[in-house]
Amino acid sequence: MRYAMAIDTKKCVGCSDCVVACQTENNVPIGFCRDWVTETVDGTYPNVSIELRSERCNHCDNSPCVRCCPTGASHFEDGGIVLVTHNKCIGCGACIQSCPYEARYSHPDGYVDKCTFCIHRVRKGENPACVSVCPTSCMYFGDLDDPNSEIVNVLKNRKFKALAPEAGTKPQIFYLT
Amino acid sequence: MKEELFVSGRNIPNIDPYLHIWHWQIPIYLFLGGLAAGILFLAGVYTILGKEKEMQATVKWAPFIVPFALIIGLFMLFLDLKHKLFFWQLYTTIRLESPMGWGAWVLMIMTPISIIWSASYIREVFPNWDWKFKFLFTFEAWVIKNRWFIAWPMAIYAVILGIYTGILLSAFNARPLWNTTILGPLFLVSGMSTGAACIILMSKNHEERRLIGRLDLLFIAVELFFIVHMIMGFLAGSQVQIDAASLFLGGQFTVPFFVFVIILGLLLPAVLESLELIGYKVPIVIPAILVLLGGLIFRFIMVEAGQITRYLY
Question: Least C-beta-crowded within 10 Å: which of A175, B34, B162, B218?
Answer without folding.
Answer: B218
